[in-house]
Amino acid sequence: MIIRDGTLSGRPGIGMVAPFGASLHVSGRDAAALEAAIAPYRGRDDLDWKPSEPSLEDVFIDLMSKAQDNFK
User: Fold this and answer.
1) Which phi and psi angles does 19 have, rounded to 5°?
2) What value, to the nearest 5°, has the Cα angle with vertex 38 and ends 67 and 8?
3) Integer angstrom CA distances of residue 71 from 12, 64, 66, 67, 68
4) pTM score, whole prediction
């Protein structure tokens, strides 16, 4: 699976990979860089890529991933 081996989350152009049920939300701030990052995976029959607008959950996950842990 893509998320387990980290091949998506480590690619330039991908800012966040987050599981949502049976799907993954893959996002980035630069549309061209994001498209280039996922291009090698577009031809796979076991993956279905659909563009979407970020949800409130996506924004929350992004903000929390950048937040400093006050308890460390």
Assistant:
1) -75, 140
2) 45
3) 30, 14, 15, 12, 9
4) 0.70
